[in-house]
Amino acid sequence: MPEPTLRILIAKPGLDGHDRGAKVIARALRDAGMEVIYTGLRQTPEMIARAALQEDVDAIGLSILSGAHMALVPKLFELLRGQDQQDVRVLVGGIIPDEDVPTLRDLGVAAILGPGTSTDQIVRAFQEAVRAAPATP
Amino acid sequence: MKSVPDLAERVRAGDRRALARLLSLIESDDDAGGTELARLFPHRGQAHVIGVTGAPGTGKSTLVNRLALTLRSQGSPEVAVLAVDPSSPFTGGAILGDRIRMREASVDRGVFIRSMATRGALGGLALRTQEAVEALDAAGFGHILVETVGAGQAEVEVAQLAATTIVVEAPGFGDDVQAIKAGILEIADILVVNKADLPGADETVRALRAALDLGRPSRRGTGTVRRETSWEVPILRTIATRDEGVLELAGAIAAHRQHLESSDEAADRQRLRAGHDLALRLQEELAARFLKRLGDPAWNEAIEKVASREVSPRAAVKELLERGTE
Q1: CA separation for the pair B168, B188 (Å, rounded)
Q2: pLDDT mean across residues, chain A
Q3: Which residue among B1, B95, B107 sits closest to A4, beta carbon to beta carbon?
């Protein structure tokens, strides 16, 4: 059986209009053989959770530069749990202050990828996050 | 692959997560997907399947976004969108970006959007897309919009699975010769000139009109059945970004549906589609069985011979067939 193709949702929640980083990551994941659903700017947690469900993704990569992560990430996890999507892994990239990292980790964020993370490291982080995901009962 | 019990029942009951999972099983060619789909097969045949194709940049996704919302506002309880994009032939990966232009539709609870990569298999687009459409159909959607990149074969394939095929053009995308070359007249039930506010829109409409007036020699690509249709292909102007002309497009789709149902064309098309589908499945199954029996060494040897131009592909296939059926 060949390796299953990973499906990844790359989403840009919040109000900042800068998605260069998200696009670089999307390309890197594609070049690693993954299918990347890219949803564009200013996505609400509701939109992200719905897209993840319809697209049946293995993981969600959130690119957050606006500083709103402490509001957006808990909301997304709440929605995912409510939709029986707790097996979907969530990775966060962008500018995340050190003091917020433990809280995000406790919520269930699989990896936090700050500025300066190489694309190779990002690809590996997604692969490892999905591999570590519990199987759906 | 993550398994889900009673997938077919849950899909029928309107569980969208189960549907999403079934679509993944279908895409990855998982046997469980085939089994569940077979259980759903009797329940399909209710949806109106609409193919939307055309060159990249003509505004298909934006148009599909508006069309989905218009169909909803006209009382369609639920609309599904299947957006097909190509996989990279080098890495197998894909960036599926159609949702960017479907923002409004994506927040409508009655619209289900699924992106699908071609995954590069020979004939795979047709087979997997067809199966995905069957799953969406059995899941109870009234309208299924299938959007493909208008790159050659895909156009013909989408026409074979759709009841109504919309070909989207935009001003500045080639002259009338291009229109004829691309074969769009054979597959289009409705022609749309999108971005109709751009200069050159009149010329595009005129070129399409002239090409249509030259006549439509045959229906439906494969040439196994040639028949005339009494349907007059309309040419509509839209500006999808401003939601202009979309209501008229929805009207033309409804008129075409009525035309199909009031003539024997719907049944003819069903038959053509079934024949096409069976032929594709047979090809795939036969090729898989044959290659399995033949074994890798003989296959690789043939590849080497053709690559080094020792034998022609035709001769190599003949030789393979002789070896494999001994």
Answers
A1: 9
A2: 89
A3: B1
Whether chain B has a CB inside 8 Å of the CB on A106: the answer is: no
Tokens 């019990």 sit on residue: B5
**One-letter amino acid of B9:** E
Distance of CA B46 to the CA centre of its chain: 18
CA distance A136 to B10: 16
Each residue of B145-175: pLDDT tens digit?
Answer: 999 876 555 566 777 788 999 989 888 766 5
Residues of B with CB under 8 A from a CB of A: 1-4, 16-17, 20-21, 23-24, 27-28, 87-88, 91-97, 99-100, 103, 106-107, 112-115, 117, 119
B88 pLDDT tier (thresholds 50, 70, 90):
confident
Q: Residue A45 burial by CB count (10 A; 0-12/13-18/19+): exposed, middle or buried?
A: buried
Question: Residue B20 and residue A36: Cβ atoms within 8 Å?
Answer: no
pLDDT tens digits for range B273-315:
888 878 878 888 888 888 888 888 989 999 999 999 999 999 9
Give the pLDDT score at B182.
Answer: 55
Partner residue opposite A54 with nearest CB, options B87, B103, B112: B112
Give the C-alpha separation, B235 to B232, whole Å. 10
Residue B201 to residues A63, A103, B192, B206, Cα–Cα distance (Å): 39, 56, 11, 9
Q: How far apart are CA B62 and CA B65, in angstroms?
A: 5
pTM of the model: 0.86
CA distance A60 to B18: 19
- For B187, residues 6+ apart whose C-beta sits below 8 A from its C-beta are B53, B155, B156, B158, B159, B165, B167, B220, B221
Q: Which of A96, A90, A91 is nearest to A115 (CA)?
A: A96
Residue B20 pLDDT > 70, yes or no?
Answer: yes
Question: B118-154 pLDDT, tens per residue?
Answer: 886 554 466 788 899 999 999 999 999 999 876 555 5
Q: How far apart are CA B174 and CA A137, in angstroms?
A: 54
The ipTM estimated for the assembled molecules is 0.90
Tokens at A132, concatenated: 């570590």
Whether chain B has a CB inside 8 Å of the CB on A35: the answer is yes
For A26, other C-beta atoms within 10 Å of its C-beta total: 23
Q: Which residue from B198, B211, B206 is spatially nearest to B170, judged by alpha carbons?
A: B198
Q: Any idea how long chain B is?
A: 326
| 3-state secondary structure (DSSP) of residue B113 | strand
Helix (H, G, I), strand (E, B) or coil at B226: coil
User: A27, A85 in Cβ contact below 8 A?
Assistant: no
Nearest CA in chain A to B118: A35
pLDDT exceeds 60 at position B63: yes
Residue B217 vs residue A123, higher pLDDT:
A123
